[in-house]
């Protein structure tokens, strides 16, 4: 059965979610700047703008996450755990690229050898409401990286914006708990076919030409390639691409101590920062931007596939859109293809 | 015309081996933008372009190429950064060759994007218009209405101290006397100013794009990266974010050319230049000094005179 949510019912629906759980959804912080935030009031939610700057990963692996707190209580020290997630959580308005990215984070944080309890608790507590991407941008290439603007996988519920209403699909057990929701009505055949039409149009729009197939093998041969001497040149070494990447997941653990207590926090880290690989002795095995740029590309397209069998890029295009100097990862991928490499060896100045 | 001259000069410099590489602007994948390019082969100078989307301050790359002889395409602000850096002894004499372009003021791509509905797929310039095209629209916008704030107030569009100018010097009249953001900021009460600053810096994700895009931020160890002493925590917190933004701005006093690269680099669109430009304004009023105009005068905070004003000491 196909359901729908009329847009006039959206606010009460959101309120019902807020009453039941911690709701996370896109919020506009400034004109055109969106992030996922915990929602206090339904009118904060913005489902009509383009994708968020910061990806949905921060709902599961926050930029700064307290691991525990401690304080002096007399002669004793008291440690407070922050592992538990006390309330159910719902995340609404997540695009398929970000949902696919969460499945990649699952590989890391919920792996065979190790389970990260903070991440696991966040994941288990959360119902994921995916939002179809009706208007992919020219920088989107999710269809090249194994995803797509209407990929349902990973969503518990899936919304498709039809203009006046959302078509609602219940996809998992968690999703089915919404079956009896008063806000959802039965969708008619016209609405269902409209959704299909929007889907077909969106599918046609996304770029399927970025050659990620076989990239792991190509990069195997390129670790010491002169390719890297040029490819990094325009990168200024900021952290935009890694922090805004929905799959980048590196973190750095710090103790923040005050006189009477403190906390252990883990913060996102970025391989493009010189501090990332700086050793205590002062030695830095990745001394320049060349090695750091190589790390970024190799991790996504070689090491990650070696460990988990999939590339760590979902084609959301954020790193392209927000890079201050237009480093274009699509071009970096293109240039790893043999034909392009020959050109590069011929002396062409390469610079994605 | 300017573009042709840039290419000719670049070709000459590379052919005569006067420089190892040219840093300039090239076309790339996104509309309304250009990208920094690095040309070593005289046969490739045709990749160099010039238009109103050459927004980056390329002098930030000079730290990366400190062991090379570099030819660099500079606007007025970029040239001023280089002069300021030279005063800080960042370059050897004759290490740089400045190809100066009298600047037409750069187009604020974000404002253009916000002015149209739908994604812009192509953009071009025609006279005083910017033509933007999308899937189902084609619009002409008045270029003048979409210029960066930092460019609107610029009075040094013609590069000073360039080795060559590839265009005629332009009239140095600002479009507006005061930076629009400063004008707004100054109208506010102290409490409102703090609120505004708080709101802007609250979006910060500590990606340090503003720092990396700035040619003047080249400290061996930035204060935010220092762990001993630890000036700020690595976690996102309002007070640490605010501290970073205040110190970053203050460290630019008398060193900032007002290019606006910091603000353009910010993925969260945090307003930054109202702070640095206000400091520039103060330095001009208090010390009659502007960054990077001559190659001899040190910035006021790098030196002292016995006649320095001291009424602020109470």
Descriptive report:
The complex is a heterodimer of chains A (352) and B (314). With 352 residues, chain A is of the alpha+beta class. Chain A folds into two domains: 3-205, no CATH class; 215-345, no CATH class. Chain A is 32% helix and 22% strand. In chain A, the strands form two sheets. Chain A has an eight-stranded mixed sheet with strand order 3-2-6-7-8-9-1-10, with helices on both faces. In chain A, a hairpin with a 2-residue loop joins strand 11 (251-258) and strand 12. The longest helix of chain A is centred in the last third of the chain and has 20 residues, at 289-308. In chain A, 44% of the residues are buried. The model of chain A is unreliable at 340-350 (pLDDT under 50). Chain B is of the alpha/beta class and 314 residues long. Chain B has two domains: 2-108 and 147-302, no CATH class; 109-146, no CATH class. Chain B is 31% helix and 12% strand. Chain B has ten helices and eight strands. Chain B has helices at residues 2-15, 76-87, 109-115, 149-152, 180-187, 190-202, 209-213, 238-251, 261-265, 273-287; strands at 21-26, 35-39, 70-74, 96-100, 122-126, 129-133, 138-142, 164-165. In chain B, helix 5 (180-187) crosses helix 10 and helix 6 (190-202) packs across helix 8 (238-251). Chain B starts with a helix and ends in a 27-residue tail after the last helix. The relative contact order of chain B is 0.13. The model of chain B has no long low-confidence stretch (mean pLDDT 95). Classes of the chains: A alpha+beta (352), B alpha/beta (314). At the A-B interface, strand 11 and helix 11 of A face strand 2, helix 3, helix 7 and helix 9 of B.
Attribute tags:
heterodimer, A: alpha+beta, 2 domains, four-stranded antiparallel sheet, 22% strand, globular, B: 314 residues, alpha/beta, five-stranded mixed sheet, three-stranded antiparallel sheet
